[in-house]
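Work Package 4 report. The design task specified in the project plan requires that, given a folded chain encoded as structure tokens, an amino acid be chosen for each position. We show below one input record used in the internal validation round.
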């Protein structure tokens, strides 16, 4: 749950300062559905700000707990018209947009978006721009992604709008890409041949402290226009971060050998294969570790005092993150970011398919389980619960996707028990949910076409009916050949899914009727279904 309790003591400096007319100031957040933005928005609301967000898809905002408490402007940062509407009557603008997973033209795209935002903000007399950039050395060549962050910060500092660029290093928190990379590398590998950058010094920062600085940035004096470094209290080698994680996770210390032959490209592929982090995201993360990245000074303390309780030590940040994961309270995740190149258009209605090549695999099964039991199994699918059929075939498909640069099956899900539109679900993305009746997933694996999977629960006089439909729109000859190649496996995968999902719903119903707790019943049902697979 989000902590929205009132600040006390020094934390009062984070509260919104009312406008001269007594109204609350308005904050515009770009990147509100991302890892940092999704955590910042509820804290801005708790601090007394009116919040507006710019989002490509308003439905993704609406599904957040805070979705009905913010204004939404649909559009993207590169769209001058959308930005002109978004910045109207705005006091402070948070720019939390990064193209870490973008293609080769990301630097140009970054600069275009930043200039569009800066121009719109200046024209609307926005009071302040706050940008979360990257911690970096001044005397060494930078990776393309770090260089791009510096360039974006410079654009805002030259915009004529007072700007504060917060340059942060590795962010540690449940669901952050950096934390997940450390977590999976440490847990999977008892001994790790690693690039020489494991010896570099890094200054990680807890996500809660990033929130502190972002909130405090809105309160700095109006004449401040500068970039400052932010970081936690510990300076560590990357290898020390991994072994610090091991201690908090109850694992043995890991042996780490620094090898000079592992280039950033090779290392990013290694990270891609060993962790859920896809290659497109792993590479900029790895590249950012090529140099020592520590704070050059503590000038930020003169603008934003540290939290009253002090900055969070690295191992404490790891402990807090692990606690969130155990309690299934991961607030936001790196998975929330859109996947570059993955289809984003929603599934068209059936009548619109007329005249198009489309392949479907439809299954329907009657069950004595009530619709609520069936829905419970449907909405818990994927991640640790699996896909209720042929786990080996699903695993092979996930590895194949990883090998060609896709997200793979290990991406999992943010929450074990909850889903909302926009959530990642292994190599799917939740496109639509009608609670109790429909879950529609859009494929984000690498395929020559676009694919969806629909799961439905419909009440019947004797229980419910489970409807399952896989839909594939092929792209050219490659798409048609792909469908024909996987068709033999559909009989194992999709028929097994239908049978075992309904069986799990019935087992859950029987267990609940026998006095078991609903959650225990669900676990038993899932365990039996996986064993049967």
């Amino acid at each position: 749950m989000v902590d929205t309790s009132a600040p006390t003591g020094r934390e009062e400096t984070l509260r919104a300062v009312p406008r001269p007319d007594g109204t609350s100031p308005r904050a515009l957040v770009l990147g509100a559905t991302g890892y940092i933005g999704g955590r910042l928005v509820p804290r801005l609301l708790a601090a007394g700000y009116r919040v507006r967000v710019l989002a490509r898809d308003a439905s993704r905002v609406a599904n957040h707990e805070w979705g009905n408490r913010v204004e939404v402007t649909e559009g993207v940062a590169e769209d001058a018209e959308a930005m002109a509407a978004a910045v109207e009557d705005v006091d402070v603008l948070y720019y939390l947009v990064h193209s870490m997973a973008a293609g080769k033209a990301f630097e140009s795209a970054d600069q275009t978006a930043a200039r569009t935002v800066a121009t719109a903000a200046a024209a609307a007399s926005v009071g302040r721009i706050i940008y979360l950039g990257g911690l970096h050395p001044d005397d060494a060549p930078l990776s393309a992604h770090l260089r791009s962050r510096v360039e974006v910060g410079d654009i805002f500092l030259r915009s004529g709008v007072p700007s504060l660029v917060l340059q942060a290093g590795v962010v540690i928190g449940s669901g952050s890409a950096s934390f997940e990379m450390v977590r999976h590398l440490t847990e999977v590998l008892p001994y790790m041949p690693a690039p020489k950058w494991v010896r570099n010094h890094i200054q990680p920062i807890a996500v809660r402290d990033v929130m502190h600085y972002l909130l405090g940035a809105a309160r700095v004096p109006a004449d401040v226009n500068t970039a400052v470094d932010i970081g936690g209290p510990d300076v560590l080698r990357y290898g020390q971060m991994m072994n610090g994680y091991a201690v908090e996770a109850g694992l043995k210390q890991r042996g780490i050998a620094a090898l000079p032959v592992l280039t950033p490209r090779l290392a990013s592929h290694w990270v891609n294969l060993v962790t859920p982090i896809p290659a497109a995201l792993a590479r900029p993360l790895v590249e950012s570790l090529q140099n020592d990245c520590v704070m050059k000074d503590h000038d930020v303390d003169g603008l934003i005092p540290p939290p009253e309780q002090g900055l969070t030590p690295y191992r404490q940040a790891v402990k807090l993150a692990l606690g969130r994961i155990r309690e299934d309270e991961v607030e936001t995740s790196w998975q929330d970011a859109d996947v570059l190149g993955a289809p984003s258009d929603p599934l068209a209605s059936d009548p619109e398919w007329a005249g198009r090549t489309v392949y479907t695999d439809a299954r329907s099964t009657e069950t004595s389980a009530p619709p609520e039991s069936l829905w419970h199994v449907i909405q818990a699918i994927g991640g640790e619960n699996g896909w209720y059929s042929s786990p080996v075939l699903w695993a092979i498909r996930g590895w194949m996707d990883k090998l060609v640069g896709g997200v793979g099956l290990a991406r999992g899900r943010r929450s074990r028990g909850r889903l909302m539109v926009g959530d990642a679900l292994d190599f799917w993305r939740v496109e639509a949910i009608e609670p109790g009746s429909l879950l529609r997933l859009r494929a984000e694996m690498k395929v020559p076409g676009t694919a969806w999977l629909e799961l439905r629960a419909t009440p019947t006089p004797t229980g419910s009916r489970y409807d399952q439909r896989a839909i594939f729109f092929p792209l050219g000859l490659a798409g048609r050949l792909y469908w024909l190649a996987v068709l033999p496996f559909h009989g194992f995968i999709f028929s097994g899914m239908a049978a075992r999902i309904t069986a799990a719903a019935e087992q859950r119903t029987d267990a609940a009727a026998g006095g078991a707790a609903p959650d225990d019943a669900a676990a038993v049902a899932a365990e039996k279904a996986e064993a049967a697979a």
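Confidence is low (pLDDT under 50) at residues 1-10, 520-533. Validation will be extended to a larger panel in the next phase.
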